[in-house]
From TrEMBL:
Binding-site positions, [4Fe-4S] cluster 1: C24, C28, C31
Pfam families: Mob_synth_C, Radical_SAM
PROSITE patterns in the cross-refs: MOAA_NIFB_PQQE (PS01305), RADICAL_SAM (PS51918)
Record-listed S-adenosyl-L-methionine binding positions: Y30, G75, S126, M197
Free-text comment on the cofactor: Binds 2 [4Fe-4S] clusters. Binds 1 [4Fe-4S] cluster coordinated with 3 cysteines and an exchangeable S-adenosyl-L-methionine and 1 [4Fe-4S] cluster coordinated with 3 cysteines and the GTP-derived substrate.
List of residues binding [4Fe-4S] cluster 2: C261, C264, C278
Name used for this protein in its record: GTP 3',8-cyclase
Catalysis performed (reactions): GTP + AH2 + S-adenosyl-L-methionine = (8S)-3',8-cyclo-7,8-dihydroguanosine 5'-triphosphate + 5'-deoxyadenosine + L-methionine + A + H(+)
PANTHER family: MOLYBDENUM COFACTOR BIOSYNTHESIS PROTEIN 1, MOLYBDOPTERIN COFACTOR SYNTHESIS PROTEIN A
Length: 337
């Protein structure tokens, strides 16, 4: 077995997304609609979730197969107790060049300092509107803009680089594109607009509800002229632009109208330890069972190698195909964004 693995489309394994919980304190309609993720929803019990020691072991094995970047996600990752402990374990690992988390920001003010102290350098905060009423509607009446903005400020003050993710949906928050762009331009944080996606089986996605990359760019460019800039590296998810006047960067993640499967190097491990090779996959390979067996690291590595080596996923490139769209998919809160 070689130390670098490529899949059937010659894509290397470079990024690992670790979900640390399937629970969340928000109920964003596009991810965990409240009527489905209600009080009786069968979230994973604590004894079915990977421990930090298991995540550390797995991460080291992924790194031995070529992973350089690790992103901690969820659910809401800051709901996981002692998260800085996991960050510290991964941060000290040879071969990890970048570690980041994606969070809804609601608890970031409390945790920013400890995360930074543990070695975290970057955080991505999701925020879909600056309007309190609209934000409440979008997140299922759970979160406040003020609290998220305080979290962003606390993270920046603690020394973390902050990026913002905004999912744009037609008829829901397109009017927030410009206010968000202006606000984060002034704050000098990179804002990334995400095309609304058909993740999971419960968000009722329709193509007509997608605000396209072109629409988003046109809206901003008409008010604050933009120019394209080169990617930082091959396979970067966001296409980058900067404002002509001050050079502040923004990004667009266009997995619907301009998909990027050809360079997708991301593996996802769910909180229960299943390995998914695509955000839109139906099934994952049970790594936790393997970790809890007598298998040594070489055996686990060999298995991950085989799974990645057989990978053919390119869902977004094939989304227009109706049969592809009809297949069952894992929920996004299960494996993270
Ligand atoms: N709870 C954390 C958060 O919201 O940042 C981390 C997990 S969340 C699943 C990761 C990212 O996925 C968020 O930026 C969220 O906005 C995005 N997301 C969730 N559902 C989406 C959808 N249907 N289309 C596009 N992005 C989505
Ligand atoms: Fe929670 Fe993030 Fe999903 Fe919203 S997008 S419901 S904050 S996991
Ligand atoms: Fe990667 Fe799957 Fe998204 Fe394509 S659809 S970019 S293969 S996660």
């Amino acid at each position: 077995m070689k130390n670098i693995v490529v899949d059937k489309l010659q894509r290397p394994l470079r990024d690992l997304r670790l979900s640390v919980t399937d629970r969340c304190n928000f109920r964003c309609r596009y991810c965990m609609p409240a009527e489905i993720f209600g009080p009786d929803y069968p979230f994973l019990p604590a004894d079915k979730i990977l421990s930090f020691a298991e995540m550390e072991r797995l991460t080291a094995i992924f790194v031995a197969l070529g992973v350089k970047k690790v992103r901690i996600t969820g659910g809401e990752p800051l709901l996981r107790k002692d998260l800085p402990d996991l960050i510290a374990r991964i941060n000290k690992m040879d071969g990890v060049e970048d570690i980041a988390i994606t969070t809804n920001g609601s608890m970031l003010k409390t945790h920013a300092h400890d995360l930074y102290q543990a070695g975290l350098k970057r955080v991505t905060v999701s925020l879909d509107s600056l309007d309190e009423e609209r934000f409440r509607q979008l997140n299922g009446n759970r979160g406040k803009v003020k609290r998220v903005l305080e979290g962003i400020e606390a993270a920046a003050a603690a020394g973390l680089t902050v990026k913002i993710n905004m999912v744009v949906q037609k008829g829901k928050n397109e009017q927030d594109i410009l206010p968000m762009a202006k606000y984060f331009k002034e704050k000098h944080h990179i804002l990334r607009f995400i095309e609304y996606m058909d993740v999971g089986n419960s968000n009722g996605w329709k193509m007509e509800e997608v605000v396209t990359k072109k629409d988003i760019l046109d809206t901003i460019h008409a008010n604050m002229p933009l120019k394209p800039i080169n990617p930082n590296y091959v396979g970067e998810v966001a296409t980058r632009y900067q404002y002509v006047d001050d050079g502040q960067e923004i990004g667009i993640i266009s997995s619907v109208t301009d998909s990027f499967c050809a360079n997708c190097s991301r593996a996802r491990v769910s909180a229960e330890g299943k390995l998914y090779t695509c955000l839109f996959a139906a099934n994952g390979f049970d790594l936790r069972a393997l970790l809890q067996s007598s298998a040594d690291d070489q055996v686990v590595k060999q298995k991950i190698y085989e799974v990645w080596n057989h990978r053919v996923d390119r869902y977004s490139d094939d989304r227009a195909n109706h049969a592809t769209r009809k297949k069952s998919k894992v929920e996004m809160s299960h494996i993270g964004g």
